[in-house]
Amino acid sequence: MRVELIQHTPDPEKVVAAAARLCYSSDPVPDLLERLDDESVASFVRKLREMGHLSPFEHVSFQFSIDGVSRALSHQLVRHRIASYSQRSQRYVEEKGFEFVIPPSVKRRPEALERFEAVMARLQEDYRELLNIVPAEDARYVLPNACTTSLMATFNARSLLNFFEHRTCMRAQWEIRSLAEQMLELVRVVAPNLFSESGPTCITQGICRQGKYSCGRLKAYERK
Fold first, then answer.
1. Which candidate, 52, 37, 45, places its Cα nearest to that of 13?
2. What is the greatest pairwise CA distance in the chain?
3. Active-site residue 167, yes or no?
């Protein structure tokens, strides 16, 4: 998996602070931006988070390049609907000799790994043979969820907060959790105050909504 933050709104925290201040000021945005210093921006962003006043967070966006992830992951990712996605098409791009993601549970068991790789090899051969008979858009129906893909994804900051809350949870599927953790590390570099309290609710709010499916991490934190 390779994840890069390729672009984001310049001065994202200052933009968020200015958007919030605009609601209570008669001054135009350029004047508000000019008067905001780093200390006041950090303080204001933290206050917005604490108050749950998150609509100003929607004015800044972050664009990611995501490569080497499975189609199983991408099917989960697009469920986060307040975002924009572009993905490599299996209709127009042939997947001869496609690469694939191997789950950790498969890697740990030699007999499972052997069978998994045999299945992938057979599907690769079947796919190549089908390409000689039918269009790529029809041959792709035999491609597995393990087949890797590449995406570009753009989120606003508020949508990212929601994404991190759900997908850094230990109950999230392992591959998308890894993606979310890497994305969170990247945005914290450029907007530390926006994302300083991001993550699963057991850490950020001291509550767990998983009920009987809880991983137990909250209880571990409470014992510390």
1. 45
2. 69
3. yes
pTM over 0.70: yes
CA-based angle 161:65:71, to the nearest 5?
A: 90
Neighbour tally for 54: CB within 10 Å: 15
Q: Which of 91, 167, 171, 188 is catalytic?
A: 167
Nearest to 215 by CA among 205, 224, 204, 203: 203
User: What is the Cα–Cα distance from 191 to 170, expressed in whole angstroms?
Assistant: 24
pLDDT at 124: 97
| The dihedral formed by the CA atoms of 213, 217, 220 and 222, expressed in degrees to the nearest 10 | -90
CATH number for region 2-85+148-223: 3.30.1360.170
Task: Output the CA–CA distances (angstroms, integers) from residue 135 to 90, 93, 128, 129, 139, in the order listed.
Answer: 11, 11, 11, 11, 6
Enumerate the β-bridge partners of residue 100. Answer: 147
Residues 6+ apart with CB under 8 A from 128: 96
Q: Map out the domains of the chain as residue ranges.
A: 2-85+148-223, 91-142
Confidence of residue 223 (pLDDT cuts 50, 70, 90): low
